[in-house]
Design goal:
580 residues, mainly alpha, two-stranded antiparallel sheet, 25 helices, globular
């Protein structure tokens, strides 16, 4: 219990100072980093060079994140300068001027599709600035983008959280229960790549369980999203305005989750979010254009911009700069009037295609961008378990830059317009760097604290073990919370699954229930944990100039995580009690 309390201190620092006292991440995260480093050195007795190695690894990951953020901002600013955003905005108004409908289509459906294609926070980097360009308050846009980082995440980046996270997490197993669905001696990505049927069947089985849980719990996410918008960003600050959209919200939820489950059953974990988002986007956008299930009455809108509270908006400099560079206020952007809706959307279409092309192992592009000649890698830095790997061509940031350059040509932009887009993007990205250079090293030190001479497991494992001890046979209730804790700390459902899947499997065996359902609950909780992950929030906020408001955003998204983990836990407990 004592060590579990100590292991929780870096998280408590974040909760108290970032969320409770409303410090910006640039002030709270250095304190959390110091706390994690001191605990690793003095209590877990991790060698100082090993702590330094994990800190350097975190710094390199932060550079990767900033590269992605810069690319996303540059693409948005390029589209703003070309005038495409004005055309896109008008297109959405023709589908429906109702902001609730727009948030569901852009954040939930388009975001799910991008999550399925790329993962790793990319949907927020794409959908959040698009929502701002459509006229959403920046704070509302970020909350929308973060809230949907739940249901589609388990199958993000072509199934990476399952195919890499769960597969490698279970790789340490020497055997499975005799009555398991399948009985491979070990599970690893190599076995899947080599065509091992048992390993593939195992991950397929877990993926179906995960999809079923998301179908049940995630069905209410679009409704929760619109209720959050109407309650905290509406003229009436009313939950009722959000509930008035319940028919359309549930329809949009099923339009994504049902194809997602069908894909998980028929094809496996690679494509559920990708196909679910794509099918849902086509179906729901077509239905909305015809007025199907659109709420009657006046379309719901945000208050007039001049009445927005200060904390809804970007910091003064960024807000003024964005306003001065929107197509409505930039004479050079008037050429946007000559752009067709197809040409305006073409960069996003190219983006979606390239995100898939760069990820599919069946295509040679993935091998090219991950080739050793274009990869920086250092194994066992300073003799520690920390491995450095930097593959800039494989990052979504490279795709953003490529599409931005193509947009310059396709939209016939001037050099002056593009220079303005680049300069604005660099300024916005610089503001995010302060928080991320402390956040990600803290995460890596926290995760890498298991190699000390004190003989203690890594801090997240200590916390999870204590939770399991306290819960006993009721563990399915808490399994999603453990997965969410892992994602909150690591900033990744994949890392959470990799770190905790074997632990979850073992607890399932100990309490005498199907361990694969417990692993599925881990994966679902890890997906939901992205809604409160600090560096995801920092990254999404930076794209629209909201650096320093991270605690305010997490206070809005925390109830969503609690709903998701609680509902999934209750459902999991019922399932294992019935079927075990």
């Amino acid at each position: 219990m004592f060590y579990a309390f100590l292991a929780s201190l870096p998280i408590l620092v974040v909760a108290v100072f970032l969320v409770g006292m409303r410090w910006p991440a640039s002030r709270a995260m250095p304190l959390s980093l110091v706390t994690a480093a001191v605990l690793a050195l003095l209590v877990w007795r991790v060698p100082d060079m090993e702590v330094l190695a994990f800190g350097i690894k975190g710094s390199l990951i932060a550079v990767d994140l900033l590269y992605i953020i810069f690319g996303a901002i540059l693409l948005l600013n390029t589209l703003q300068q070309s005038g495409a955003i004005t055309v896109i905005k008008n297109g959405f108004h023709r589908i429906s001027p109702d902001r609730r409908v727009q948030s569901i289509i852009v954040a939930w459906l388009f975001g799910s599709f991008i999550e399925g294609a790329a993962g790793f926070g990319t949907p927020a980097a794409v959908a959040v600035p698009l929502l701002v360009a459509l006229g959403f308050p920046p704070l509302a846009a970020v909350v929308s983008g973060i809230v949907i980082q739940s249901t589609p995440v388990s199958f993000g980046a072509l199934g990476t959280p399952i195919l890499v996270g769960v597969a490698n997490g279970l790789n340490v197993a020497t055997g499975f229960a005799a009555d398991s669905v399948v009985q491979p001696a070990a599970v690893s990505w190599k076995l899947i790549a080599d065509g091992n049927v048992a390993a593939t069947a195992l991950l397929h089985s877990i993926g179906v369980r995960v999809a079923v849980l998301h179908l049940t719990v995630g069905t209410f996410i679009p409704l929760i999203l619109v209720c959050l918008l109407t309650r905290f960003f509406g003229r009436n600050q009313s939950w009722r305005d959000g509930l008035g959209c319940w028919k359309f919200a549930i329809f949009a939820a099923f339009a994504m989750t049902i194809p997602s489950v069908a894909t998980a059953i028929l094809l496996g974990p690679e494509f559920p979010s990708l196909f679910g988002g794509m099918v849902g986007l086509i179906v729901v956008a077509s239905a909305a254009r015809r007025g199907f299930l659109i709420p009657a009455g006046e379309p719901w809108q945000f208050p007039e911009k001049e009445n927005w509270p200060t904390d809804w908006q970007a910091v003064a400099e960024a807000s003024a700069k964005t306003a001065s560079n929107t197509p409505e206020n930039n004479e050079e952007s008037l050429q946007g009037a000559s752009l067709s809706l197809f040409r305006s959307w073409l960069p996003y279409l190219i983006l979606a295609i390239l995100l898939v092309v760069f990820r599919l192992p069946q295509l040679p592009v993935k091998g090219w961008v991950n080739h050793p000649n274009v990869t920086f890698a250092v194994a066992d830095l300073f003799g520690s378990p920390a491995d450095l790997k930097h593959t800039p061509l494989a990052l979504p940031g490279t795709i953003f830059l490529l599409v931005s350059g193509l947009t310059f040509v396709l939209h016939g932009m001037s050099a002056k317009q593009y220079r303005t887009a680049v300069a604005d993007s660099l300024r916005t990205t610089a503001k995010a760097s302060v928080a991320l250079v402390f956040t990600v090293p803290m995460v890596q030190i926290f995760l890498g604290s298991g190699g000390g001479t004190a003989g203690l497991p890594a801090m997240p494992i200590v916390l999870a073990e204590q939770m399991a001890t306290l819960a006993g046979s009721a563990w399915p209730l808490l399994a999603p919370f453990a997965g969410g804790l892992g994602a909150f700390v690591a900033g990744s459902n994949t890392i959470s699954n990799m770190m905790l899947s074997m632990f979850q499997f073992g607890v399932g065996q100990q309490i005498g229930c199907d361990p694969f359902w417990i692993v599925a609950l881990q994966a679902v909780g890890g997906a939901a944990g992205n809604t409160i992950c600090v560096h995801n929030v920092v990254a999404a906020s930076a794209v629209v100039g909201l650096v320093g408001r991270e605690g305010q955003i997490i206070r809005r998204t925390l109830p969503v995580f609690l709903y998701y983990a609680t509902f999934a836990g209750i459902l999991g407990l019922i399932i294992v009690r019935v079927f075990s």
